[in-house]
């Protein structure tokens, strides 16, 4: 392998074995078989190296999800995605914490790809008339609950990590943001606004300006009624 790949592999292995503190320049250079200046030349500093490790973790995580075909039930896919997310966190605790910590410079492209995958899933749920909240709000609620459940479990000793905790939070969260039947069959404008908002991109008879205005109105209806 090229030095860059060897360094990333070494840093990832050290992170998995001993956590962030184990990823020292000396340890990485020894394990990768390179000189320390090579690490600085390729990654700048330890922070840069850890950011690259996190990006590689995201790439692997998203690639695994993209390999799984979607079913006919987008809500079932959302539930399965939650379980995969928490399972990844428990299998890769140090990497997960590194991946999810805030970064002032913004999200890496790999993280944005993961967000795009989740946004597409919520768009499918909304298009099916089964989203009870506006897409952006539902997405943020789901993300906050999923990350919170994973981090809470990781804060406990392994013997105290009860899978039932994740299952209860998952079911409560999905029940709060989705409906069992198409929402448009229920009275009230909010559900209809959410569903129409999801399909607005396919409307060809409106200009871009008209679509933007209608989208704003639909979001306001869904938020106020919801």
Protein described:
The protein has 226 residues and is mostly helical. The chain has a domain at 76-225. Helices cover 71% and strands 0% of the residues. It has helices at residues 3-18, 25-32, 36-43, 46-66, 74-91, 93-100, 109-127, 135-154, 163-177, 189-198, 208-225. Helix 7 crosses helix 8 (135-154). 27% of the residues are buried. The mean pLDDT is 89.
Please state the overall shape, judged from the principal axes of the Cα atoms.
elongated
Overall pLDDT: 89
Oligomer: single chain
Low-confidence stretches: none
Beta-strand percent range: under 5%
Biggest sheet descriptor: none
Query: What is the radius of gyration?
Result: 21 Å
Q: How helix-rich are the residues, as a percent range?
A: over 70%
* Structural class category: mainly alpha
Extended strand count: 0
Can you count the helices?
Answer: 11
N- to C-terminal distance: 54 Å
Q: State the order of secondary-structure elements, H for helix, E for strand.
A: HHHHHHHHHHH
Protein name: TetR/AcrR family transcriptional regulator
Domain HTH tetR-type: 1-61
Keywords: DNA-binding, Transcription, Transcription regulation
DNA-binding region: 24-43
